[in-house]
Predict the structure.
Amino acid sequence: MQKALELFANKGFYTTTIPDIAAALKMSVGNMYNYFKSKDILAKEIIRYISAYLGQKIRVINEEDISTKEKTKKIIQIYFQTAILKPEMIDYFLRIYLSTREVFKEDCEGMVCVNDFVTEIMIYFEEGVKCGDLRDQDFFSAFGLFMGYLGGMVFLKGEDILPKELDAYVDDITENIYRALSK
């Protein structure tokens, strides 16, 4: 999956073929089809893989006995760290999952394929509301604010527009997101 993820991120989803992936893995095309019957099935497995990866990282943060503001900062750091160390993951999410929704219609409706990640973000919001740090508000508007901000910053960095590294923005973004979500 990692090799397919890299190829999709570098070559694009539509121009990458199963034979391209098989060649990169030094595997026969027939053998590749034994694992994934189609590129669409592989695409869905990749988004589930990314969701599980990020979800596990955020689960660790959610289990820590720290303030909601500290959790906010750590989630931002994890997202940015992933964008720096595994840029193909965030790139896949931003450029393939969100822009080729027709591939993800069947078996990936709504947020089904990103459930691990979304569940942990939901837990972060619920616990923040329960302890009185965050306002009780519509999940999707809070989620959109949080993830739109992070995705936008990663996109700007990827386009070489930001004058500083992503890490340099963590404190300001933490403050902005926390203020927008808090009471």
